[in-house]
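User: Show me an example of a complex going from sequences to structure tokens.

Assistant: Sure. Here are the input components:
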Amino acid sequence: MTEQEVRRYLRQIKEEDSERAFRKFYEMTYDRLFRIAWYFLRNDEASQEVVLDVFVKLWENRAALPELDSIEDYCFIAVKNAALNYVAKQRREAALHSEEWDEESVVPHHSAEEEVIGEEIFAKYVKALDRLPSRCREVFLKIREEQKSYAEVAEEMGISVKTVDAQLQAALQKLRRMLLEEK
Amino acid sequence: MKQENFDKQLDALVKLTRSPRGKYGAEQGWKKLENRLFGGSTHSNAWWVRTFIGVAAAVIIGLLIYLPWMNEEQVLMLHYRTTAEVKRITLPDQSVVMLNRYSTLDVPERFTEHERKVALSGEAYFEVTKDHKHPFIVQSGSMKVQVLGTKFNVEAYKRDAHIRTILYEGAVALSSEKSAQSLLMKPGDAVLFNKSTGSLMKDTTFRMDDAGKWMSQILTFHHQPLAEIARVLSNHYDTTIVVTDTSLQAYRMTATFQGNETLESVLHLLGETGDFRFYEKNNVIYLTIH
């Protein structure tokens, strides 16, 4: 997915009020926005809820979208804000309903290691993931994120173990290149 | 991020998030989203359904506003920027803005309950939808333009000493925070706001026939002093142009350009007629007597 492709859909969405184009745009960006929300919320259900809210806003503001400087940056900020608002709301509701509430379950926290990495690099990572070819990304996520074995992945995707390895190496190479380049 | 630590850092990055799966994936998500936005798989476009939904939503929104814990929502600012082109922008209230070259406009994603406020640096032409309950405000530095519904142009380039406002239709109130001055404009009026003193005054050199042509990418000057021509060219080409001699500054010229020529060819043509030469030094262009 490139910024150009996305822009093309944004223009279509605006000019034709096209649901079809909006669905395409949604399919291209949903996963990345989910990952961004999860970074702040650490929860699947909340992440989906927040991301869908952001898509509603994007649809409502569709007239303005093609003229934005960077739709990727805008989406990141939109999701971050929505996630932080969600957390704040949870806190308030928890405080209203009970005297003792478990800080752990309501407020997501980041470990010390994550603090060192920082939001900017995370944003770069999430962008870079999106730019991988789809099969390449699928292999990378199954192996690194889901911690599956080469054999499991090979069977699931109907490819040979050699291909799995090749795709993973390609992913690592591409990610390294994208993450190390200066903006 | 160092090359050697890459694998470790990548591991840490992977752990920071998760990809959507199963019922939290895109497909399932779309079903929920489609319902909210388009009313389910059988779209009911009957006007009475849409009206009912609109009214119900308005009532709910009305109630929510009074709940105390809703006040802290952050508002996203949309930032529009142009370089060598003119952009057409539609605002949340359906007002239309033409943003000239090398300008920026900041618009909130949603206007507040009391007013519609935007921030401008550079030049823009506004066609504002009528809304008596929500005044439309353009903020440029310490000058405010407040309108209800109207057509006007604001020239607020960073490098200029003044901000110029031109009113085409409707009514506009200009106010200066610095001098606590305010002024009511009529259609056809052009007012200058002095950035250093904060004072407002009528622009006597202004000509209506030259105004607004930038939207069709045309630069026209009717009997304008070279100092003013240099100012307009500076903003159009985003380059500082200085007229060195005072007699040359006051020299009046008439000319029309398509706006997409090079600055050099424009200055060359003007120089031939006006009998001046130009040279560049440290990214500034100087116009001087032969």
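The lines above are the inputs; the final block is the predicted structure for all two components together. The radius of gyration of chain A is 19 Å.
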